[in-house]
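Q: I have 96 residues here and want to know how they pack in 3D. Can you give me a structure?
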Amino acid sequence: MKKINDRGQIDGLVVLLLLRPGLAVAGAPGDQVRQSIDQLLVILKDPWLKAVGNEDQRRTKLKEVIYQRFDFTGMARRSLGPEWRVAPQKVVVSPD
């Protein structure tokens, strides 16, 4: 059983959230995205969390914010389409 777990995935999600889309996002979903981006920026700018030796704490805090907004299992299901019926037996989708 292969476990999908990669620090690069987290970094990529942070980058995606930080790249604010050029299109205007209105309403509650847009507010939620902005709130998440603001929370991520606070974490990324925190001098204590930037210090050497605090990488794990910073990563944990980033994960908490990111995982509130992403349904990794749902994304995998939609990405795989009909193959999803076979895939869960082979792959464990885990954001941790």
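Q: Anything worth noting?
A: The longest strand covers residues 2-4. The chain has one domain: 2-70.
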